[in-house]
Design a protein that fits this description.
The complex is a heterodimer.
Chain A lengths: L4 E3 L2 E4 L5 E6 L6 E7 L6 E7 L2 E4 L8 E4 L6 E5 L8 E8 L10 E2 L3 E5 L1
Parallel strand pairs in A: 2-11
Antiparallel strand pairs in A: 1-3, 3-8, 4-5, 4-9, 5-6, 7-8, 9-10, 9-11
Chain B lengths: L8 E5 L4 E6 L8 E7 L6 E6 L4 E2 L4 E4 L5 E6 L8 E8 L14 E6 L1
Parallel strand pairs in B: 1-9
Antiparallel strand pairs in B: 2-7, 3-4, 3-8, 5-6, 6-7, 8-9
The chains are: A mainly beta, B mainly beta.
Chain lengths: 116, 112
């Protein structure tokens, strides 16, 4: 079974530039998550989708971050404009709808963003 | 959200058992205890979960205290590949949905 795919794996940009990350979840997984992981910390949830609707985006900095999940499959996360503090690994995860109460999440390898 | 407390780091020798502790004194009756681990340069992966009873699977065992205020993840024979950050997470599927709130975790170092 193919896992969660993310691209690119690495990205280096200068501050105030824009960047976009792509995620393809495991086939059939209705729920998709984006996490931000700053070096030395645990992942922090940015946004959760159920199919193509947003379930939780309370920790997404909406002045510069946006995310969409068209057709309930692939998703993109965009940062515009980037700041130095956005340097982090951006992780995408997915889970099966109806996997209550376990709700095991499957993570991709992440995209490491460096903002100079 | 109920919080967990884990040691920042632990060391183990290869092929010896490892006991990774987690304190969760404010756990609620509907909180499940989940463990994930994150190998270097990878995303986290699910290890095990439990509610009240001890649990075993192919990766590890989970021992839950009778009062549920603490739990221990047990790796029966550590290998170099088990070197990772281990996260103990409480999740209430009835209130928090599928949300996972990660703390700092325990960095496990395995010596050959």
């Amino acid at each position: 079974e193919a896992g969660v795919a993310q691209s690119p794996r690495y990205k280096i940009i200068e501050k105030r530039q824009s960047v976009a990350f792509w995620c393809n979840p495991i086939s059939g997984h209705a729920t998709l998550y984006w996490y931000q992981q700053i070096l030395g910390q645990g992942p922090k949830l940015l946004i959760q989708f159920q199919n193509n609707g947003v379930v939780d985006d309370s920790q997404l900095p909406k002045d510069r971050f946006s995310a969409e999940r068209l057709k309930g499959v692939d998703s993109t996360l965009k940062i515009q404009p980037a700041k130095l503090e956005d340097s982090a690994v951006y992780l995408c995860a997915s889970s099966l709808e109806g996997s209550f109460p376990i709700g095991e999440q499957f993570f991709g390898p992440g995209t490491r963003l460096t903002v100079l | 959200d109920a919080k967990t407390t884990q040691p920042n780091s632990m060391e183990s020798n290869e092929e010896e058992p490892v006991h990774l502790p987690c304190n969760h004194s404010t756990i609620s009756g509907t909180d499940y205890i989940h463990w994930y681990r994150q190998l270097p340069s990878q995303g986290p992966e699910y290890v095990i979960h439990g509610l009240t009873s001890n649990v075993n699977n192919r990766m590890a065992s989970l021992a839950i205290a009778e009062d549920r205020k603490s739990s221990t993840l047990i790796l029966h024979r550590a290998t170099l590949r088990d070197a990772a950050v281990y996260y103990c997470i409480l999740r209430d599927p009835y209130n928090a949905g599928n949300m996972l709130t990660f703390g700092g975790g325990t960095r496990l170092m395995v010596k050959p």
